[in-house]
Amino acid sequence: MREYRQTKKLFETFYQNQVYPGGILALFEAGAWQITAVGNRQVKPFPLPTELDRYFDLASLTKVIGTLTLLLKLKESGRVDFDATLQTYLPEFADPKITLRDLLTHRSDIQDYIPRRDALPANELIAAYLELHAGKNWRKQVRYTDTGFILLGLALEHVGGGVLAELFNENVFKPLAAPMTYHPDPQQTVPTIPLYDNRGRLITNLCGIVHDPKARILGDHAGNAGIFATLAGIQNFTQMMLDFGQTAQGSFLKEKTIRDLYHDHSELGAMRSWGWRLAFDSRQQPVLFHTGYTGTLLMIDSFQQQALILLTNRVYPVDDRPDFNQKRDQLIACYLAEKQGGE
């Protein structure tokens, strides 16, 4: 069985170099999970060790685990068409030409500047999102943004007739028996937001509050971020994907739906699937992957039966995004090289 020695070594080296305070690396190979946990989930005011059953803020993994997954289920049932306009499912939206495909593949060039965005109450922020329009590069290039999935989340509420977090719970979390929620117990949640006084002294750690400011405002209506999950929760979701939509309880998604994810749907050659990005291993096999701002990463290869889960709270106690992104990309490259190599 492939042991991913270099990937594990790199994960541990980054912890030792304080790229993140601690974390969990889980690798699926030959029908089994290999799990490595390092460091601490909390470092101030006193250290607390990393534990496998704690909830992590998944940040943008919400896009593919929650928003996309529910859209795929609705697509299978014929309730949504990815080439239909967003107005079809969200009539209040101002731009008549942007489609679900545009938003799912980040090719809408939606002009998403909103003055005082992080200071607006939820109703005003939603109203501002509904007034946005595509830019001059609509369908000409891919530009990643949270805005598309915020709008897709609002459309899901309109189609599903409920609050997004509750729709996820009933249609995704419960059927997958996945420990996931928008409202984790703070005592069971890894911190991502340290609060300091004006002298730089730690006052407290905020746990169970989503790190993304837009998602904090939108609360249960946020389709871009907001899901908290344990390692087991991500494993259950990943296992469904590895099993081409099947679970112990039956079919969750159709096999064709999972297979279709391993294709570029941007029509621009941008290697953008529905929601997911596409990478290629050393044998040019496609791999689904997505990242999260808080230090999360999920990579899945259903055809080769391989997967990688990275859970960290790298924004705590210091948010050094450029350094982390560089190190994370090294880890991705190492894994892609090793997953089809030798021991």
What can you see in these coordinates?
By secondary structure, the protein is an alpha+beta fold. It has a single domain (about 5-30, about 55-340), classed as Beta-lactamase, CATH 3.40.710.10. It is built from eleven helices and 14 strands. It has a seven-stranded antiparallel sheet. A three-stranded antiparallel sheet has the order 4-8-5. The chain has a two-stranded antiparallel sheet with strand order 6-7. The protein is globular, with a radius of gyration of 19 Å.
Element order: H for helix, E for strand: HEEEEHHHHHHEEEHEHEEHEEEEH
CATH superfamily name? Answer: DD-peptidase/beta-lactamase superfamily
Number of domains: 1
Indicate the CATH topology.
Answer: Beta-lactamase
List keywords for this structure.
Beta-lactamase, 343 residues, seven-stranded antiparallel β-sheet, three-stranded antiparallel β-sheet, alpha+beta
Helices and strands, with pairings:
Elements: H1 5-16, E1 22-29, E2 32-42, E3 48-49, E4 56-57, H2 61-76, H3 86-89, H4 100-104, H5 122-130, H6 147-160, H7 164-173, E5 180-181, E6 193-196, E7 202-206, H8 213-218, E8 228-229, H9 231-242, E9 246-247, E10 250-251, H10 255-260, E11 277-280, E12 286-292, E13 296-301, E14 306-312, H11 321-338
Antiparallel strand pairs: 1-2, 1-14, 2-3, 4-8, 5-8, 6-7, 9-10, 11-12, 12-13, 13-14
Helix pairs in contact: 1-11, 2-6, 2-7
Short structural summary:
The protein is an alpha+beta fold and 343 residues long. It is 33% helix and 19% strand.
